[in-house]
Structure prediction request, 459 residues.
Amino acid sequence: MNQPKKTNTGIIWQKIVKVFPILVVALFFVLNVFTPLIADDFSYSFVFGTGERVSSISDIFISQYHHYMTWGGRNVAHFLTQLFLFIGNKHVFNIFNTLIYCFFILLIQFHACGSLKKKNSLFFIAINVMLWFLVPAWGQNFLWLTGSCNYLWMTTIVLFFLVPYRKRNADSVYRLNIPFSCLFFILGILTGWTNENSSAAVLFLLIAYFVLKIINKEKLCLFEITGSIGFLIGFYMQLSAPGNYVRLEVLESMATNQGGFIIKIIKRFVSVTRLFIRNHGLFLACFSAVLGFDILFYQKKKIQLFTWFYFLAGLAGTYSMLLSPAFPDRAYLIVTVFFCITVLNILTQTTIEIPAIVKRNLPIISIVFLIFLSYSFLSAGKNIVGVYLKWQERTQYILSQKEQGIMDIEVKAPIPVSNKHTSLYGLSDVMDEANAWPNTSIAQYFGIHSIKRLQGGNY
Prediction:
């Protein structure tokens, strides 16, 4: 039988869709360009323990040693942060951050589909749209230099590390050669050394993976062993950092869930569950369950086992935070990613038919949706650019005051932030007291005595 010919409208629409990923990447780069250094960026411009500005790669190693001993074990993320700040040209970070973001999206697509052989522009766009609306601290995770190195870059390492396990699960004869299996040991260390709940999520995924291997009496190949050993070493190095206990004491003193250990855990469980619901975790879990139920009981098909692994990793990434006094929205990225992969992976396995009316009117429906998405993007873009311009204005004012010999400076603050896609959303701006953070770091960065908020100087 002859295949039905595609209409001119359909062909044009397909060509337009293929351009969208390029547009997404270009817009992401532009948002990076209009994101200034903020908050922790000023602190990490200096060597922990000495207070001197980072001026060499060796300074970064010295800084990370002091950081490990006095504040926390996220050395991989903070090494990257200090490396980009040492380079001193934010345009370099903007370029690399955009490239990593593209790689990150492609890794999500791989884990959802099991392959990148079928290049699908709509899939690429769908992932971006899901993250745009579902990630609770989008600006902190993807645009803020320190936040991006801690979450976007570390989540990318996690997803890259899991690629061979995903391929091995789908194809029992798949394996890495000996040189790559040895290098995989290093990647395992980096993965275990990312950040706390990301590593916890991977740990539970690997436990499920190896339990299944034992049940099925399957032999292990070299990369599975080297990667997992490396991961456990990195995870141990991260958790055993003496600085973790220092930071834990500070967070405990600020926490509202005081009481005995059991009481704290109960209160944190309630708090984490509320966060799970508020940040769409329950919705994604229920949506996955409904689709999974349809596949199992109506379509009479089995669900790929790795789907359950991603789901388990999402839950582990959430409830591992019971051990922490605080669970900031930016730390929720790994959870959102694993649940999005779960949903997309189930969708690739379903045979649910799209109604004919939707197929016929797909271009119109897409245009309506794009208008809605454009409004969301323009609203975010307006706030992002607004923050950037006000920071530029503030910077010029600080430098002009410094040139006049005025070293104790007052500025308007805080800069208005209303959109979660803005990097400053949820972060501290200049405070009332000169000796408060981040005032001290900002003053040190600009080489002035002090900076504080101008009383009555609101925007």
